[in-house]
């Protein structure tokens, strides 16, 4: 059986270095607010080009902290509209509704599967939105230089959900810019299955905005700017020293991790040949967090059954879009037809922990489907 993802196999490469690093943390007696977290924050900021980074508890909290930070700064207030992609994981939207902001869903582009920026711009204008969230879904950078510039000129915030795309990049005026340094602020997740995974939960916020980062840092620590002095009604969203120590080892290997994913995605794109299977668009800056094909002709579930019967586990990202979840009944639009029709076709093929020969094996099996 080829599993969808084998996290132990991924982590075996780093096991010895991780054990040593975690043992050092244990021996140090310092488990929070220590040198591992500050070193990781510095290294993460450098890796994406941002001026500042704060290590936090998880990706959801990173998004919450950014939006709450903008509320505390007076840049956003309850009721303000935030344009968000309909085709995303629910964690992109939960913090927006939690803070009393109003999400305005926008359909994806049919080829990138990511936010349709032209539709997003129309939506910003129509609803007088104060912020836009771009989600670099499946590891593909979701960005439009021209529209982003217009938004910036009009004081509309751009928040990146970079949970799936650490290391992804786009070209801007001949320069490479990394996700996490495109918008006004970005949220990272280091959930164990992400491209850089912790040994549990972890996340981060990056930005160039000194003021925002200080507020985020305070909010993540009960809202205190100094010991026993609380300027905000904050939360506890800190990163553990053990997680920071483990993450530093993986972050140092990011180029290799990204190279391997690109190599496997390229192999799939070259080898898969089946009239029922639509391949993902090749986007050069993508880090291929997921390799998502679309199975046409209502054959998606049959395809997954067939793959399973032939020893290949697959997954769906995401079978039920946020607006179709019971918790969002009556709050989000009842119907987003493009998002829903895509959700009925998605199949994620295993990519994270596969060797190149396993990719070839999976492609050969998929090619024989419904022949
Ligand atoms: C994983 C993920 C999150 C949430 O990150 P956690 O660390 O699991 O809280 C948010 N948005 C997207 C797009 C994700 O894939």
What is the fold's blueprint, element by element?
Blueprint: H1 7-12, H2 15-28, H3 35-48, E1 52-56, H4 59-73, E2 81-85, H5 94-98, E3 102-106, H6 117-127, E4 131-135, H7 145-153, E5 157-161, E6 169-172, E7 175-178, E8 185-189, E9 203-207, H8 210-219, E10 224-226, E11 229-230, H9 241-251, H10 254-271, E12 277-278, E13 291-295, H11 300-309, H12 337-343, E14 346-349, H13 356-367
Parallel strand pairs: 2-3, 2-4, 4-5, 5-8
Antiparallel strand pairs: 1-9, 6-7, 8-9, 10-11, 12-13, 13-14
The structure holds pyridoxal-5'-phosphate (PLP).
What does this entry show, briefly?
By secondary structure, the chain is of the alpha/beta class. 38% of the residues lie in helices and 16% in strands.
Question: Which properties best describe this structure?
Answer:
seven-stranded mixed sheet; globular; binds pyridoxal-5'-phosphate; 371 residues; 38% helix; single chain; three-stranded antiparallel sheet; alpha/beta
Give an account of the 3D structure.
This protein is an alpha/beta fold. The protein has a 7-stranded mixed β-sheet with strand order 1-9-8-5-4-2-3, sandwiched between helices. Strands 12-13-14 form a 3-stranded antiparallel β-sheet. A two-stranded antiparallel ribbon has the order 6-7. α5 links the parallel β2 and β3. α3 packs parallel to α9.
């Amino acid at each position: 059986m080829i599993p969808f993802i084998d996290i132990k196999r991924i982590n075996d490469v780093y096991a010895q270095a991780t054990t040593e690093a975690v043992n050092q943390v244990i021996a140090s007696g310092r488990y929070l607010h220590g040198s591992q977290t500050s070193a990781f924050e510095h290294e993460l900021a450098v890796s994406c080009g941002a001026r500042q980074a704060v290590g936090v508890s998880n990706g959801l909290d990173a998004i919450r902290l950014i939006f709450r930070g903008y509320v505390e700064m007076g840049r956003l207030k309850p009721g303000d509209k935030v344009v968000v992609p309909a085709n995303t994981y629910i964690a992109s939207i939960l913090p927006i509704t939690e803070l009393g902001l109003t999400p305005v869903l926008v359909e994806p582009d049919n080829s990138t599967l990511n936010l349709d920026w032209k539709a997003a711009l129309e939506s910003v204008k129509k609803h007088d939105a104060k912020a836009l969230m771009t989600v670099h879904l499946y590891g593909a950078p979701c960005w439009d230089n021209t529209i982003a510039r217009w938004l910036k000129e009009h004081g509309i915030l751009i928040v990146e959900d970079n949970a799936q795309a650490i290391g992804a990049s786009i070209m801007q005026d001949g320069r490479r810019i990394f996700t996490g340094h495109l918008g006004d602020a970005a949220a990272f997740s280091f959930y164990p299955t992400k491209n850089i995974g912790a040994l549990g939960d972890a996340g981060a916020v990056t930005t160039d905005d000194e003021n925002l980062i200080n507020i985020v840092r305070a909010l993540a620590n009960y809202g205190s700017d100094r010991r026993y002095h609380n300027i905000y009604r904050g939360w506890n969203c800190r990163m553990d020293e053990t997680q920071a120590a483990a993450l530093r080892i993986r972050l140092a290997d990011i180029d290799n991790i990204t190279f391997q994913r690109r190599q496997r995605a390229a192999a799939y794109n070259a080898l898969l040949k089946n009239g029922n299977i639509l391949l993902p668009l090749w986007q050069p800056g993508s880090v291929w967090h997921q390799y998502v094909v679309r199975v046409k002709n209502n054959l998606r579930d049959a395809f997954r059954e067939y793959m399973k019967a032939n020893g290949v586990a697959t997954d769906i990202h995401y079978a039920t879009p946020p607006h179709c979840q019971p918790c969002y009944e009556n709050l989000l639009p009842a119907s987003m037809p493009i998002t829903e029709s895509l959700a009925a076709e998605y199949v994620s093929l295993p990519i994270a922990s596969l060797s190149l020969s396993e990719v070839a094996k999976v492609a050969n099996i998929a090619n024989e489907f419904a022949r």
